[in-house]
Amino acid sequence: xxxxxxxxxxxxxxxxxELSNLNLLxxxxxxxxxxxxxxxxxLSTFEHRLARLEETILPVYNExxxxxxxxxxxxxxxxxxxxxxxxxxxxxIEKTLxxxxxxxxxxxxxxxVEPVIRAGPGSVANSGAGFDTFLxxxxxxxxAQEYFEKNNPQSVELENVATLFNSGGDxxxxxxxxxxxxxxxxxxxxxxxxxxxxxxxxxxxETSTSSxxxxxxxxxxxxxxxxEWLIVHGRDEYMNVYA
Length: 243
Hints:
InterPro entries: Cullin_repeat-like_dom_sf (IPR016159). This protein is mostly helical.
């Protein structure tokens, strides 16, 4: 016959082990519940973003589809009427089709130039888009922005092209700053004193100032073009950097 104290000890040990297992199970259930709640939040956020994306893209898709259908309708009419149309009518039809092509192009500008704006105006060798390519992309954005401001100021596309255009201006400001800092070479004070002394010693003679030419010609030309673009478009932040 077992000793009651030993039996009680065994029961207490088993009870303690079961309680430990129960607490561990509760802890794991709690962590699982937290993970579930987190996943629900992520899925809800994802669903909300998908809904917003649909609200943003659908009007653009519908507008582009309407324009394309109008163009196709005109093309169908042109195909039917061409044999009996007089040259003047054909001229105006072709002009209308060309205008439609031009307008439809504005709706794809943001998608077309976004990779260029994201790459920046740096050299292609440094994973940039290249300065000339970047400026052409900005010109397309500006034309599209002017069209939407005049003809469809409530469109989502206006917001898209305006955002990209502003990003492009910011990128040019950064490029100006980087070029300036990369190629600037402060003139030593002794060189300035030598130049001043040379001017005093040789009045009327042309003094060499080659030591003051900080930038290579290509860099100077690019800085000038960037500054001109920024001034024309009301972006004068670069002046503080230059100063």
